[in-house]
Automatic annotation (TrEMBL):
PANTHER family xref list: THIOREDOXIN PEROXIDASE (PTHR10681), THIOREDOXIN-DEPENDENT PEROXIDE REDUCTASE, MITOCHONDRIAL (PTHR10681:SF128)
Record's protein name: Thioredoxin peroxidase
InterPro entries per the UniProt record, alphabetical: AhpC/TSA, Peroxiredoxin, Peroxiredoxin_AhpC-typ, Peroxiredoxin_C, PRX_1cys, Thioredoxin-like_sf, Thioredoxin_domain
Entry annotated with the keyword DNA damage: no
A GO molecular-function descriptor: thioredoxin peroxidase activity
Alphabetized UniProt keyword annotations: Antioxidant, Oxidoreductase, Peroxidase, Redox-active center
The species this protein was found in: Rugamonas brunnea
Length: 212
């Protein structure tokens, strides 16, 4: 199954480190970062889950829940969490799905046979409170993910959901944003962008970031 942006994230029930999870019910009205890793007790994954654990305060500010997944069983996950917490100096406060039968991995197309016939690749989804997929990123198995980028994209998604703006390349929270081409009426522009704007070109209009 191929999951595209705007699709409803498939629901599932699967075992995890906190017991069986029904995904949509667990997600509730939060944003979700769902990410897979190839295997427990592996070095790159250990650093990634440590980084995710340390980002909990930032995720909480953004109404985001994190949930990880691999095809290892829950008991192995729990043993590995002890290693993560000791080596990465953090507390793993999010569940890890135990996808032993690969039900979720196949549902979300997380196993790429040309990379590994059995292990999940480093796939990451950002899912909004309406259960729509808003971002998908797939990294090679040997390359750790940039979780600062995940936060940056969530900031951009939440801003553009609440205001009629787009974000330029390398945008960070607080930077100028773009007035979309769909907004052309001068009175509407004054109403929506009271801080004014600078037109580099008729199609490239930059305005200060709106207040959240």
């Amino acid at each position: 199954m191929t999951i595209r942006l705007g699709d409803t994230a498939p629901d599932f029930t699967q075992d995890s480190t906190i017991g069986p999870i029904r995904f949509h019910e667990w997600a509730g009205n939060s944003w979700v970062v769902l990410f897979s890793h190839p295997a427990d007790f592996t070095p790159v994954c250990t650093t990634e889950l440590g980084l995710t654990a340390k980002l909990k305060p930032e995720f909480d500010k953004r109404n985001v829940k994190a949930i990880a997944l691999s095809v290892d069983p829950a008991d192995a996950h729990r043993e590995w969490i002890a290693d993560i917490e000791e080596t990465q100096h953090t507390v793993v406060g999010f569940p890890i799905i135990a996808d032993v039968d690969r039900k979720v991995s196949e549902l979300y197309d997380m196993i790429h046979p040309n990379a590994s016939a059995t292990a999940t690749v480093r796939t990451l989804f950002v899912i909004d409170p309406a259960k729509k997929v808003r971002l998908s990123i797939t990294y090679p198995m040997s390359t750790g993910r940039n979780f600062d980028e995940v936060l940056r994209v969530i900031d951009a998604l939440q801003l553009t959901d609440s205001h009629t703006v787009a974000t330029p390349g390398n945008w960070k929270d607080g930077d100028d944003v773009i007035i979309p081409l769909t907004v052309q009426d001068p009175e509407l522009i004054k109403q929506k962008y009271p801080k004014g704007y600078k037109a580099e070109r008729p199609y490239l209009r930059l305005t200060p970031q709106p207040n959240k």
